[in-house]
Design brief:
Blueprint (H helix, E strand, L loop, with lengths): L10 H30 L4 H23 L1 H27 L2 H25 L5 H23 L3 H32 L22 H30 L4 H20 L4 H27 L2 H25 L5 H23 L3 H32 L5
Helix pairs in contact: 1-2, 1-3, 1-5, 1-6, 1-7, 2-3, 3-4, 4-5, 5-6, 7-8, 7-9, 7-11, 7-12, 8-9, 9-10, 9-11, 10-11, 11-12
Length: about 375
């Protein structure tokens, strides 16, 4: 898959743009966690809200080397206010205070207007009307999701969360492409410190096609962690709605397999998909065994999950000989261990620990995708291919 005449960035700039897209997904996930915690009375709202603010700070750090700290911090203030109003909206819903709900919703739309105007003022490749449309649609879905969770309509909340994730992808892509265009045409391109790569950040050319590819690979592991959690929650809290979460979980590997086939052998990619679906089914069976209190079955499934992880790493070593197999095995085992601990901690009602584990899972999904990126870049370079 060779595409010529594409402008390219170095790997450090590529990572900045990928991380800018991830921000919108992360915000959507943690907003749902905030809503779920409040409406279900789990008592973990404060650490979730604190993490929402941390996510906004990540975007500030992304914007700093490109637009300067003052501009980045001004935008962060608008993001922080947005998060505060969403929290106040949830609290007003719990009090059933219709007047305050309407006031907060108006404030949220005004915040959208200010953020859209601000972004268009700092980057000529971002248009205010486009940002306003994207943000208002996102807010509409957010309000609907809040209403669904508040009324206990878990099935609709899952549907709306899926719509929100799709909308966050549109927003992230628009934000990222605006950054890409700005950097490409900027007389002095920012080169930040690159974290998580073992390749010289100035060594290789990253096209926008390559950035899209690596972002979508990263989102496979991100989505796998998110929807596994939603499924486990559904099985525990609202079993009748677990099927919708399970159906979404089954869809996730499809794009991942198609992406792999654009670079690697189709048959080997299909073999890997079979193992990934086996992994998903084993996790589902583990949830069932733990709900039923069947310790022996749970232990057997855990053993099979680790064997499945080893099989996937070994197969990927056949697909791409440039991977560090021992390093991959350690990272995949760590991801699997966190998944098992997360399911267990939720079923035992240890919600504080569960939240910490989920946060770790998202970090480990990033580690896996970074390892994939390193091996892919080496593979492409050794085969003299450009994406």
């Amino acid at each position: 898959m060779v595409k010529k005449n594409q402008a390219c960035l170095n790997l450090a700039q590529m990572q900045i743009i990928i991380n800018s897209r991830v921000y919108w997904r992360e915000k959507t996930v943690w907003l749902r966690l905030l809503m779920s915690s409040n409406y279900s009375g789990l008592g973990i709202s404060e650490p979730i809200f604190s993490h929402l603010l941390d996510i906004s700070n990540k975007l500030t750090n992304i914007m700093c080397p490109i637009f300067g700290r003052e501009i980045a911090e001004q935008y962060n203030e608008l993001l922080t206010q947005n998060n505060i109003w969403v929290r106040e909206l949830i609290e007003a819903q719990l009090r059933n205070d219709t007047v305050e709900i309407n006031q907060i919703v108006n404030s949220l739309y005004e915040n959208n207007e200010r953020r859209a105007a601000f972004l268009s003022s700092i980057n000529p490749f971002w248009y205010e009307v486009q940002w306003r449309n994207l943000m208002d649609t996102y807010l509409n879905f957010t309000i609907e999701e809040a209403n669904a969770l508040a009324s206990g309509d878990f099935n609709r909340s899952v549907f709306l969360f899926d719509r929100l994730m799709a909308q966050s992808d549109l927003m992230g892509d628009y934000f990222a492409y605006g950054l890409y265009s700005y950097i490409i045409l900027s007389p002095q391109r920012p080169v930040p410190n690159l974290i998580g790569f073992r390749i010289d950040p100035t060594d290789q050319c990253a096209t926008y096609s390559l950035m899209n590819f690596l972002y979508n690979i990263r989102m496979f592991w991100f989505d796998l962690a998110v929807w596994t959690r939603i499924y486990a929650i559904a099985r525990t809290v609202s079993p009748e709605y677990a099927e919708s979460a399970y159906a979404k979980l089954r869809q996730i590997p499809i794009q991942y397999g198609n992406l792999l086939k654009t670079v690697f052998d189709d048959e080997l990619a299909d073999e890997l998909l079979v193992l990934i679906y086996e992994q998903i089914e084993l996790i589902m069976r583990l949830v069932t065994a733990q709900i039923d209190g069947n310790v022996d079955e749970a232990n057997r499934i855990v053993q099979r999950l680790y064997q499945n992880a080893d099989d996937r790493v070994a197969l990927f070593a056949r697909i791409n000989p440039h991977i560090d197999q021992d390093r991959w095995r350690n990272i995949h085992h760590s991801y699997l261990q966190s998944t098992i601990e997360e399911v267990t901690s939720f079923l035992t009602g240890d919600y504080d620990r569960n939240l910490t584990i989920f946060q770790r899972l998202l970090e480990e999904s990033e580690h896996i995708s970074n390892e994939f990126s390193v091996s892919l870049l080496t593979y492409l370079s050794s085969n003299q291919r450009i994406m």
